[in-house]
Amino acid sequence: MNSLVLALIGVTMILAGYALYSRFLATKIYALDDSRRTPAHELEDGVDYVPTNKYVLWGHHFTSVAGAAPIVGPAIAVIWGWLPAFLWVTIGTVFFAGMHDLGALWASVRNKGQSMGALSGRYIGARGRNLFLVVIFLLLLMVNAAFAVVIAGLLVSTPTAVIPTWGALLVALLVGQAIYRLRWSLPLVSVVGVVALYALIWVGDQVPLALPETVAGLPANAVWIILLFVYAGIASMLPVWVLLQPRDYINGLQLFIALGILYGSVLLARPEIVAPAVNGNVPEGTPSIVPLLFVTIACGAISGFHGMVSSGTSSKQLDKETDARFVGYFGAVGEGLLALGAIIAATAGFQTLAAWEEVYSAFGQGSVGAFVSGGGAIVEGGLGLPQSLAATILATTAILFAATTMDTGVRLQRFVVQEIGEIAGVRLGKGLATIVAVGVALALTFGAGVDGSGGMLIWPLFGTTNQLLAALTLSIVAIMLLRRGRTALPALIPLGFVGVMTLYALFIQLGTFWSEGNWLLLVLDIVILVASLWVMVEALGAMRKARDFQGDDDAELEQLSAAEVASSGEMDRTRSDES
Fold this sequence. Notes:
Layout: H1 3-29, H2 39-42, H3 54-66, H4 69-77, H5 82-109, H6 116-123, H7 126-157, H8 162-180, H9 186-206, E1 214-215, E2 218-219, H10 220-237, H11 244-269, H12 289-296, H13 304-312, H14 323-348, H15 353-359, H16 367-383, H17 387-423, H18 430-445, H19 462-483, H20 489-516, H21 519-547, H22 553-558, H23 562-568, H24 573-578
Antiparallel strand pairs: 1-2
């Protein structure tokens, strides 16, 4: 199979999904209505609730949900062959991820910007809400700890990415000032920001920076991890327009340019895919493709973390309801295109099948390294860029997206910590809650030693936890649709498929952890499994009641006061903190 054919088929399928299916969802299922005031206007505070241009908000949303996962998952999953990964990414993006992300955004906007954790309390019940928060907390802990380790590893292995990675923060701060203080036009800001970012990438390629092997007794990657958490903690407390929005917007543009470079190189070089379509000779120890494919590729097909971002930050910045289609569904489209690019880079970026099999010698191999090296080879062959510069572009892309996911993840973890504190009767301020969120992640990261390897300890549970969270989010969306008398099949079909596959994978992992004597992961697996099954049972009961609901759900929400919003969730708390 030629990679160009695969790229054309995949891109056409994903863009057709946005043109057709997202329009159906927006008009017939969610009935988006610009006459409704969004939480960004109703609860505007200049910190978290900020009406935002849909293109800027899309940049924030897309880069927050993308991270490294749509690169890591597909680049690992091609070990089963490129065809299963390709089908899951394309079909998943159109019918699963887009529907889920748009649905979570719609659900939160219709509930005054509340998070999925808070919405579970309203639509499933207090018990379901508490269990939901357990799953959310563990997922965010995995994301924050693991992404810090991944970024630190890339900064050590690719010193040419150090200058553009940290220089991008200065670019983002200036972009935020240009948009909100100086009132520059968005096209001008976009051009200046992207030129500055790529200038930093060129400088970084010319001037690689590497830390000494040890700094104050700590290895280089540990120092990077600490610096990343300090940054993420500070960034999570700043008003979104100062750093989070502009950083994510510029990163979003940068990713699409990077994808353009990658896909353009595929068009010019047309490399053959050397990996098998379906691998009948997988390495020993590789798990079964069913159900593991559907949890190995999470981001890029469907991801519960997206629901956290949609309801945690994006819903509070949506200017008009109809913007949700572009922000939510097209955000999933961008991630699907990134996942598709990762599949191509990890299967067509090698000279021979033997070279590919040497990298994919065991399950879990390949990952970001295969994307960077394979993609760099394709770009060098297509556009003639030096492989060092091509690798720097792709490594910087991976780092910047992992970093934007991490700082958004810390912000969301702060919300969850405040929510848990509220349930326990303890009110935590923004600063203290951030310290707790960062402290827990640092404790996990360095729990196994100063090398920071502890950050990956619970990563094997990320895929299953992430997909379970997606199923639970879809259950809330389905309940809201049923209460409005609309068809819930667009939510129920992905809910059923993802729920079954993920629970199946969790049971398989239980056996693996037991046989390996990995008691930490075994206990966490049981906690996640019990909590999720319990919430699902509660959700099924809520769905039965929703079918018989005789009231007007939107009318009830209009009666919901700001005080009631604050008491049922964390999303209005920041406004109180600021005052």
